[in-house]
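Backbone shape codes:
===
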Amino acid sequence: MKEPENLLRDFQAYLGLERGLSPHTLYNYTVDTTHLIDFARQEGIALNEFHEDDLHRMLALLHDLGLQARSQARLISGIRAFFRFMRMEGYISSDPTALIEFPYLGRSLPDVLSVEEIDSMIAAIPPDKAEALRNETIIETLYGSGLRVSELTGLRLSRLYLEEGYMRIEGKGRKQRLVPLSPRSLELIPLYLEQRIQGPIKPGNEDILFLNRRGAAMSRVMVFYVVRDLAAAAGITKTVSPHTLRHSFATHLLEGGANLRAIQEMLGHESIATTEIYVHLDRSRLRSELLAHHPHYRPK
């Protein structure tokens, strides 16, 4: 059988020449198939030996990433088209997607914001308010790094590595991971820190990054109100919360073609090794995924 990359090129030619799909659909199906190829390679499974159970494991990973049912359904469509192509070409005798069901497309996971909607939230921040710089930094850090709101409120100065472009996050189960900071976050945080030292800082909060007016750590509820009010000010009618920005982070990376495992690690669904060598490799790989696939990491 051909190498996966050669199969993908043949599949693209088939979609464009024989099925006459639009460039947009062709791009989406290419991204979907790339995710399949990455997953198969990481799991050590040949594409012509893929079974229904393997696909269920891949879909379970997508569910763990918190992706909307609509995004999952679109990916299944692309994978199904690829396996039908493989069967038509004689590479497989049966289609492993034949019994795979599409996820329910009614009420389910939170809404996902477009890049334009997120930018409009940032543009809606009143520039004359004392918290303007802090709130922009919060939005950019939530969306640019996919943090949980509890991880944001617990973010410490001692865990910021601005020169390297990373922060150390303590997630669920006290597991720690390294998460890249977006270029805009790296611009905003030093500016916010200059402003932060001008205000009050309550004892015990010296190492907390995001503070309220009284100098104490911000609560999760307060961050929720910041996000909700900015969405309303931007005219967004969707139900928006800090978790919406986390879902948007994952969805935009997936739709841009980022590696599933890399997204999973950045979201904190897997622990990372603590050796210095692995951390160095991990940082390089995760940053390259974000630079290639996250809208706020690309040059304007």
Summary: Confidence is low (pLDDT under 50) at residues 271-282. The beta strands are 160-161, 166-170, 176-180.
